[in-house]
Design a protein that fits this description.
The structure holds 2 protein chains of 2 kinds. Chain A is α/β, with parallel strands linked by helices. Chain A contains 18 helices and 12 strands. Chain A folds into 2 domains: 2-290, 7-stranded beta/alpha barrel (Alpha-Beta Barrel), CATH 3.20.110.20; 309-396. Chain B is of the alpha/beta class. Classes of the chains: A alpha/beta, B alpha/beta.
């Protein structure tokens, strides 16, 4: 019997506006409100609303046999709340069916997992709080922005209390291994890893409506046959994609939603089940650790960081951004922290890509990579000045030891908290025991008395 | 295959981009097997590189019969023409041109520049072309720029060989749309008679199709290229101080200061940048009819302290200017091709070019803005002066891109058009 783990990412970045260098210092609002509203409304109407309706319908019709998982970035939640609140309503409805698990991800959909550990921890916590507030569930499974993963990230994620992480089944990491098993992180052996089957996932998300594809047209029975025909011991198929695949990458006119609706029925015929990531982790054991020293991602053919950090411009922007991470962490200016979330989004870096395949790719409001870089750096220049103005007398070198002390103290407090909790528990146990003892002795004593 | 080319300029004595382009193009074409190029020039100086083509000095070609001895021919032509060729030419004088002022060789004097009596020179040039055409044997005629179109047409009518014209610029580019009717007439006549029109960019091709009403099927874009820098110049350029060490950044405009090149947009952008920065200087090299107006405009904007006019540059001075620049800007309003950004990029200087420039069609490692969008231009200048990574990326990748654009590749494409025209 095989299990399909279906996961959708929902992320829309907050578009930056055209920001010239002469605005530095005078204009502190960086966003293109028109483009933001237009793009989110377009995505909601063409993809999110019909797709979520379909998923709800599938959950209702199959009496719990259909399961999926969804993650949302903080930016997209904010955009949806402002411009398309009905999508949030649909999500709540979907979660209530019990068939959909919410997976956590970084609030900003950024690269903090590589650039700043403290910022990463803070934004994951921020997102978990936001998700809990909206859906009343606490995520136990994590997925990083663009499925970026490395051993170090795995360790941090484990320390934050997650049981499992979703990432890419990158060929250069897996080698001869198959993504159809559960693996675990080398640095934190208890953290389970679910690896995406990129061929089967992209058959849907990229190739579904491609006339030139040799397998076109893709039907649910054929697709389920492929899964059923996998080797006997390969029990798990992880299909991860963006929710935009349903309606935007593959237009609604390609009948992709009907394809999805037919999946559970065809799966049942072949004895294939659906499960959420946490159910998979409960049921299946890890077959071994997977070693990832250089980060992997789910983007492009290379499945690495090259779409965001592939050229010197992207690297400079990235380094400048995370050079002030500590300062932003210590400040409690809400506007600065909000901008911090929006500026980190990976899309901003993707727009600066000069990879050969990226020449004609979607660049938002920008013409070229240089245009994207210039605009972003102008905004970042203004932002960094604002952050530095909060603590003008402090040098970066002075901040890091201070941050270190704060962090150490925090660790110590946490440790002590745990100790206190532990001690309290033992104390209660002791108390309970002594009470029992006294009562027992009493009961024992009574007959003796009598 | 023999080609008879009509040109106006040839290095080392050049006045604009036409000479450089003529040299590269003929040299690239000469790399083709079985290619014999004869190049007619109004007034060569005798120090041109003739290793790959044969130059005919038009001012030594007789149109009036003169009885001169072989020694006199050598002496009077300044050793630019052999007596044998002279006598053969003299046998092909086809009409009585004694009404024209001729020199002691019976030839017509040319200035070889762009004088006030340009129309007269163009006319004389085609008279001489008649003698050359009668004497020479060739398969194809190739005329560069409008000055030589009448000569090309005449040669075609005499010989029946196919005429290729090469459009390096049109009057629409030079005049921002307000064309000189005489020049337009000459250009259109040349295009109407041509069997194949080679344009230096798609932009020019569109102008030729839309403004000169030519059949798109006979118009082709034939982008220019550059030759690698000679070692001597490369060494000079390599002495550049590293970007990170330079406290003051220099932004350069280099070209004729005329309406076509959009110098006023450069000044406007400079104004925006200077207002907001302390370490950026601007340099407008070159001369032209708008130079005084630009000096006044700079003074009026109050940025003269950071805006400099070093005047006309040529030879090594150009490369020294590139070496000391951090950004090169070409804000041309309408540029058929524009070879200077390629030269700047060869020297490792990141370039900002207007979207209205033909060379932008084959360049991607440079920043393109609309010529009128001074804010965008200022932003790009500021970014290149401020962000090292962008500067380094465009400097390294830009050089790599330009190094791959060679005249030999252009030669192959021109040759294939020749073969097609000759039905091979």
């Amino acid at each position: 019997m095989k299990t399909i783990c279906l996961y959708f990412e929902m992320h829309q970045n907050i578009h930056l506006k055209r920001y010239r260098f002469f605005n530095i210092g005078s204009d502190h609002y960086y966003y293109d409100d028109y483009e933001n509203e237009r793009s989110i409304v377009e995505t909601a109407n063409n993809s999110y609303i019909p797709a979520l309706n379909t998923l709800i319908e599938m959950a209702d019709e199959n009496n719990g046999a259909f399961k999926c998982a969804i993650s949302l970035s903080g930016c997209s939640i904010e955009l949806l709340e402002t411009h398309a609140p009905q999508v949030i309503g649909l999500l709540i409805k979907l979660v209530k069916t019990g068939c959909c698990e919410i997976v956590a991800e970084p609030y900003s959909h950024g690269l903090a997992s590589l650039g700043s550990e403290s910022a990463f921890r803070a934004e994951v916590k921020h997102l978990c709080e936001k998700v809990e507030g909206l859906f009343g569930v606490k995520p136990t499974v994590f997925r990083n922005s663009c499925s970026i993963y490395s051993d170090d990230i795995g360790r941090i994620v484990y320390e934050m209390g997650f049981k499992a992480m979703l990432t890419e089944g990158a060929k250069h990491v897996l080698g001869w291994k198959s993504p159809h098993f559960v693996y675990n992180c080398t640095q934190a052996p208890s953290l389970k890893l679910l690896l995406r089957d990129n061929r089967l996932s992209e058959d849907i998300s990229f190739r579904f409506a491609d006339y030139n594809w040799s397998e076109y047209p893709l039907m649910a029975d054929k697709y389920m046959d492929w899964i059923a025909q996998l080797p006997e011991d390969e029990k798990l198929v992880n299909l991860f994609m963006e929710l935009c695949a349903l309606g935007i990458f593959q237009p609604l006119s390609s009948n992709i939603l009907d394809f999805f609706k037919a999946l559970p029925g065809e799966a049942k015929k072949r004895d294939i089940k659906f499960a959420t990531p946490s159910e998979v982790c409960k049921k299946m054991k890890s077959v071994g650790p997977i070693n990832v020293t250089d980060p992997i991602s789910w983007v492009d053919e290379e499945r690495d960081l090259s779409p965001w950090l592939g050229n010197v411009m992207q690297q400079e922007a990235y380094e400048k951004l995370y050079s002030i991470a500590d300062r932003v962490m210590v400040c409690n200016d809400r506007r600065l922290q909000q901008d911090w979330d929006y500026l980190q989004a990976t899309n901003n870096f993707r727009f600066m890509s000069t990879k050969p395949g990226a020449e004609n790719s979607y660049r938002g409001i920008y013409d070229t990579a240089y245009d994207a870089f210039t605009n972003y750096m102008n905004i970042l220049g203004d932002y960094i000045t604002r952050v530095n103005n909060l603590y003008p007398d402090l040098e970066n070198e002075e901040i890091s030891p201070l941050m270190m002390t704060i962090r150490n103290q925090e660790d110590e407090i946490n440790r002590k908290d745990r100790e206190i909790a532990h001690l309290q528990k033992t104390l209660e146990l002791l108390k309970g025991n002594s009470k029992e003892k006294t009562s027992r002795t009493k009961t024992k004593k009574t007959p003796s008395k009598s | 295959m023999k080609v008879l080319m009509f040109g106006w300029e040839f290095p080392p004595h050049i006045l604009g981009g036409l000479g450089t382009a003529s040299y590269g193009l003929t040299k690239g074409l000469s790399a083709q097997p079985d290619m014999d190029i004869t190049f007619c020039l109004p007034k060569p100086w005798g120090d041109e590189d003739q290793s790959f083509l044969k130059i005919i000095p038009m001012d030594c070609v007789p149109v009036v019969w003169q009885d001169v001895s072989p020694g006199d021919v050598t002496a009077r032509s300044g050793n630019r023409m052999s007596p044998e060729l002279y006598y053969e030419m003299r046998n092909n004088i086809y009409a009585d041109f004694r009404y024209i002022h001729t020199n002691s060789l019976g030839g017509i004097e040319f200035s070889g520049r762009y004088p006030d009596n340009l129309y007269e020179e163009i006319n004389n040039y085609s008279i001489v072309a008649g003698v050359v055409t009668r004497q020479q044997q060739f398969d194809i005629i190739h005329a560069h720029d409008w000055l030589t179109y009448p000569a090309g047409i005449y040669a075609k009518q005499l010989s029946g060989a196919p005429l290729v014209i090469h459009v390096h610029a049109t009057d629409f580019d030079r005049s921002r749309g307000k064309v000189n009717p005489v020049v337009y007439g000459i250009e259109k006549d040349g295009m109407d008679h041509a069997d194949c029109i080679m344009c230096v960019s798609e932009l020019t091709r569109q102008t030729v199709i839309n403004q000169y009403h030519q059949d798109p099927n006979k118009c082709f874009a034939m982008h220019n290229a550059v030759y690698p820098l000679p070692d001597r110049i490369q060494q000079m350029v390599d002495k550049r101080r590293p970007y990170s060490e330079k406290k003051e950044k220099v932004v350069t405009f280099l070209g004729r200061i005329t309406m076509q090149k959009g110098p006023e947009y450069f000044v406007e952008a400079a104004k925006l940048v200077i207002e907001r920065s302390r370490n950026i200087r601007f340099c407008m090299a070159g001369s032209g009819d708008m130079m005084n107006a630009m000096i006044e405009l700079v003074a009026q904007k109050g940025i003269s302290h950071r805006f400099h006019f070093p005047g006309f540059m040529k030879g090594d001075a150009v490369y020294e200017a590139f070496r000391d620049s951090d950004v090169y800007v070409m804000p041309s309003v309408s540029e058929p091709f524009g070879i200077s950004p390629l030269e700047a990029m060869q020297c490792g200087v990141p370039s900002i070019i207007s979207k209205q420039s033909g060379c932008g069609e084959i360049l991607s490692k440079c920043i393109k803005t609309d010529y009128w969008d001074i804010q965008s231009m200022a932003d790009a200048i500021y970014a290149l002066c401020k962000y090292e990574s962008l500067h380094n990326y465009l400097s390294v990748e830009g050089k790599r891109e330009v190094d791959a654009i060679t005249w030999e590749k252009v030669g192959v494409r021109i040759r294939s058009h020749y073969d097609r025209l000759l039905g091979k």
